[in-house]
Amino acid sequence: MAICSPLDSSESGSRKAWIVHGLVVGAAIAAAAAAHAAFYFRWPSRSFRSRVVGIIPARFASSRFEGKPLVHILGKPMIQRTWERAKLASTLDHVVVATDDEKIAECCRAFGADVIMTSESCKNGTERCNEALQKLGKKYDVVVNIQGDEPLIEPEIIDGIVKALQEAPDAVFSTAVTSLKPEDAFDSNRVKCVVDNRGYAIYFSRGLIPFNKTGKVNPHFPYLLHLGIQSFDSKFLKTYSELPPTPLQLEEDLEQLKVLENGYKMKVIKVDHDAHGVDTPEDIEKIETLMQERNIQ
């Protein structure tokens, strides 16, 4: 049987030196990795994304409902009702309307709203929000895109998506969903959403998702309806506008898909919300009925 001879003193000293060196290097690498992780995944401080502006993009031209922002709902223009609801949110430092139409601008100034004029070339509300942000004198950390056709948006929902983005430093976008009503399952104007177990968006679609083999609505599945309200990290908002359109975004005609297709994270909160946005003239009567039931003046 072979017997291992002990190391001589010089060899032993050399090996000890290498062991110590390895431990030091390993500790340094571990410390650097921990610092890197702490930078990206730290718990947000109180000042993280603290300055918030709400922007209501509004355009007169619309293929489905021209002049929609100015249509009256129980005596007030729809854009005014949206602005009044947004002003009740506690997280917003400022609320402005962004439009390319002078008729909308005049209407908004008449009821006291601040207005930012934007170009007609904006392809969607997000691009309009970005242009308005660049024209605002003050810098903001979070931009909330408040759909002008959401006259009954709850201020608590606005506050909820802002806080969700502030508490998720790995996300650049946040939005809200609510339970989908069975009668809206195959309505392409009602956008559906699926999320993962951590509350991040997986996909949005105008079709029913998930779609089962029977092709019918499963009465036991908790389908989710996407609400139009969404908030962006202000730095990402500029990046978003510079990204080229993506295949899924173009196919579904849903701007939030460009965020997901480019690998960015989107935080989603679930809320209890009955009201829908106004997509067609027929929706006006539904909104007015709901307002009367809730005694909203």
**Uncertain residue segments:** 1-43
Silhouette: globular
Radius of gyration computed on alpha carbons: 26 Å
By DSSP, the count of extended strands is 11
Textual characterization of the structure:
- The protein is an alpha/beta fold and 297 residues long.
- The chain contains nine helices and eleven strands.
- The protein has helices at 9-41, 78-86, 102-110, 125-135, 155-166, 234-242, 247-252, 256-261, 282-293, and strands spanning 52-58, 72-73, 76-77, 94-99, 114-117, 142-145, 171-179, 192-195, 201-205, 224-233, 265-270.
- 34% of the residues are buried.
- The model is unreliable at 1-43 (pLDDT under 50).
Topology (SSEs and partners):
Blueprint: H1 9-41, E1 52-58, E2 72-73, E3 76-77, H2 78-86, E4 94-99, H3 102-110, E5 114-117, H4 125-135, E6 142-145, H5 155-166, E7 171-179, E8 192-195, E9 201-205, E10 224-233, H6 234-242, H7 247-252, H8 256-261, E11 265-270, H9 282-293
Parallel strand pairs: 1-4, 1-6, 4-5, 7-11
Antiparallel strand pairs: 2-3, 6-10, 7-10, 8-9, 8-10
Helix pairs in contact: 4-6
List keywords for this structure.
297 residues; 9 helices; 9-stranded mixed β-sheet; two-stranded antiparallel ribbon; 36% helix; alpha/beta; disordered N terminus
